[in-house]
Design a protein that fits this description.
The protein is of the alpha/beta class and 236 residues long. The chain has eight helices and nine strands. The chain has a single domain, classed as Spore Coat Polysaccharide Biosynthesis Protein SpsA, Chain A (Alpha-Beta Complex), CATH 3.90.550.10.
Length: 236
């Protein structure tokens, strides 16, 4: 599959410190991949930086939104944009280097035989780096909690480094997805699972972010705990 059919969606909010570096790193490993920056009107000028990059490079596209509306809505907007264009593989990834672009080729290869490929911290060969004890406990415990309730074998349900086949996104009822924040990642995996599609986990090492401020908050963590039960009851 030629790489121009690959789109990498990067949601941004105050990521001016990372954007140019992450785009350069992506194009080092996948030179022909296209990138869609979905910017939520970042006060630090991230959107303007993205516009300047797009003007100089036809592989870079920008989708501006009026304000901070959440991670899930940013990805849904990106998916809609991808489906309107001729992309056969669509990635989600962060701008902050917690998702290392070096894993993109392996995930792209795995998508040849899988409907969804998860960059996973919790399979053999994966892991985290520079995380505190509390963060590790919350991540592991939250994943076990969600897997138990939803009856899934995917080890890293909250992972946000994902590759979708176009056909997978076309089958998902994206207009019915209501989760935002990190529970959005659980909902998408659960919906793919419920449709009987194949999910494969590729090991990644997930470090703490290099620059900027984490988007995780106590409210997002609480949402993940309560919303898992709603997913169990709501998703057919």
């Amino acid at each position: 599959m030629p790489s121009p059919s690959c789109l990498i969606i990067i949601p941004t909010y105050n990521e001016r410190e990372n954007l140019e570096s992450i785009v350069s790193a992506i194009h080092t490993v996948l030179p022909s991949a296209h990138i869609l920056v979905v910017d939520d009107n970042s006060p630090d000028g991230t959107g303007q930086i993205a516009d300047a990059m797009s003007a100089d490079d036809g592989r870079i596209h920008v989708l501006h939104r009026s304000g901070k509306q959440g991670l899930g809505k940013a990805y849904l907007a990106g998916f809609d944009w991808a489906l309107q264009h001729d992309y056969q593989r669509v990635f989600e990834m962060d701008a902050d280097f917690s998702h290392d672009p070096k894993y993109l080729p392996a995930m792209l290869d795995a998508a040849e035989s899988a409907d969804m490929v998860v960059g996973s911290r919790y399979v053999v060969g994966g892991g985290t780096r520079d995380w505190g004890l509390v963060r590790r406990f919350v991540s592991r415990g939250g994943g076990l909690y969600a897997r138990t309730i939803l009856g899934m074998r995917v080890q890293d349900l909250t992972a946000g480094f994902i590759c979708y086949r176009r056909e997978t996104l076309e089958k998902l009822p994206l207009n019915e997805v209501t989760s935002n924040g990190y529970v959005f990642q659980i909902e998408l995996k659960y919906r793919v699972h419920r449709l009987g599609m194949r999910i494969v986990e590729v090991p990644i090492v997930f470090p703490d972010r290099i620059a900027g401020v984490s988007k995780m908050s106590p409210g997002i963590a609480a949402e993940a705990i309560t919303q898992v039960w709603k997913l169990k009851l709501r998703v057919p």
